[in-house]
Structure formats: C-alpha cells, structure tokens
Amino acid sequence: MKSLFHNTKRLKEEHKLECVGLDDNSHNPEKGWEIRKETQNVKILDPEGLQPISEDKLRIVCTSDTHEKLNTMISRRMIPPGDVLIHTGDLTHEGYLHALREFDNELGLLRHRVKLVIAGNHDHCLDRSMIQRYKDEDYIPYLGMVKSDVQGYVQRQTRLDLKATDVKSILRNCVYLEDSMVGVCGVKIYGTPWMEKYTKCVAFSVNRGEALLKKWNSIPDNVDILMTHTPPLGYGDKTHSGHHVGCVDLLNTIQRRVQPQYHIYGHIHEGYGIRSDGTTTFINCAACSRHYRPDNLPVVFDYPIPKRYRKSDQNWVKIIKEIGPPPIQV
C-alpha cells in the first residue's frame, strides 16, 4: 500500500497567493461545493501500510473528538505507539474543568514523546472569551453556576488563581496550540481551534465570512502539518443529513496559499476518513461516532524528518510562533 506522504510538488511560489480573499459563498457551503465539486480531485485513501518505526521518519498518531472517552480508548488499546500524538479538539464533552484535568491525566498514560493538542467547540473552559460574554449574574451552562462564582470554583477545582495564571496550565502532559506553531524535528506544525458559530454557547467560534477568514489568514505559509478542529469544505465535512458544512475559506486558504502536506481535523464525526486533492492529505480523525461512541481508530502516518534533524536531538520541540490573548480575567 502506498505511503500517504505526497511526492507531488507544491505549486510554484509565483502561483501561490499571499492572501486569500473572501469567497462569494462563505456563508453557503452547500452552494460553494456545488460550484466547485467538478474541479476538486477528491480521492479517498486507505490507511497507510506502516513499516516499523524508523529513525528518519516521525510516526504521527492522529485522533480527535474523544469527548471524555480517551480513557476508554486507552483501556481498549486503540491508540498505537508513535513519536507524536495529535489531538484536534473536543477533549471534553461539556467543557468542565475537572474533565480537562482528567484528560490531561489520561494523556500522561501515553508514551508518545510529543503530544500536540488544540481545543474544539466543546472545550468551553479553554476559551477565554466564553466567560467574558456573561454578566456577573448570568448563569453559565457549561460551568453550572453564575459568573460571580467562577473564581472560587476554579480555585477549588484546579488550585489555580486565574488572575495569576491560565486554565491552559492544567494541560501539563502536552503542548497546547492556539493560533501557534511548533517545530518537531524540523517539521512545522500549526494548530488553530476556530470554527463557524452556530449558537452562542460554542467555544472558539466566530461568524462565517470575514471573521473566520481573518483566523485563517493568520496561518503561516510554511506549515507542513495543519491542525484545525473544523474541516474544510468537501473533505470529510458531510453530516448525517448529507449536507456539507465545512469552511470554503479554509479550503481556499489550504489550496491556494498554505498547501500543507497534511491537514488534520475532526468535528464532523460522520466525516471520519482520509482524503487527498493530490497535494494535501486531509485527515478527519474524529474518534467518536455520531452517537459519541469511540468507534474510530486513530489515523497513523510517517513523516520524513528533514536531513539536518535527528530523533536523538535533545530539543525535539521548538515553539516557532505563539499568539494569543492574555489569560482570562474573571
């Protein structure tokens, strides 16, 4: 079985756009796909036939949307060994802080040398803006209390003072990416959690159109592996009702500007699988089914390490780009 890693050349630099403009169908993914489906060379791929882990390649294990079922997957031995574990969001189901701590403890049971994590729309406690949207007397559904009680709750649950630190510091067994990039043995991996807003109580969500495109325009050009929570239009974005819900501006950004070798994501559980457009391999690695059962195995592939890097190097992970607002204030 052929490797998932493409030897196809990316578009010549003069053909790549410096910035992708807003698509006419940003707010209408169904119409956007109908217009471009004949020109999209979508190929469904089988999982890669893997050789033993080698010194010149990173063994990368991808999963997403575990919804507090990571421990179940570990107990069932569903997560294979590897060098890098990638999780593209929905670590929790309702966004509770105690669930985030449990997730981090479960990550600590896994032996992957590097674990990269982004948030998803269910991970409310990681979104700084979620609490700020409420008034002191407002009831916050995912915390089960009014905003004025949040500070005491956080201190009891995490022993942290949010005025001095951040909820993200709960995640001690991984590298948390939020509009930021790391280099792992010279392989550049960028993670961003944003997605389209469809209701008020959705973490890391903004309106389709200019607001969401602004997030995608922050993705650097030189990314090898892109991590998002939401899928691009047409590649593992179809719901059980048969509708495409992916982001057309994300697809345009990937195909016209960034052109990563791999795009890893989840969110649409029914879209699990591996697809390619001939340049980028698109992997929807949602672990849970539509009914929130962890039925889907992680997707595994090997990524060649640039020649001047070695697995024996002491400093495996280098923070290349880190952007984000200051810690949440409550």
TrEMBL record:
One of its GO terms (molecular function) is hydrolase activity. Transmembrane segments: none annotated. It holds the Pfam family Metallophos. Residues 58-270 form the Calcineurin-like phosphoesterase domain. CDD domains: MPP_239FB (cd07379). Signal peptide: none annotated. InterPro entries: Calcineurin-like_PHP, Metallo-depent_PP-like, UPF0046_metallophosphoest. It comes from the Eukaryota. Belongs to the UPF0046 family. This is Calcineurin-like phosphoesterase domain-containing protein. It comes from Lottia gigantea (Giant owl limpet).
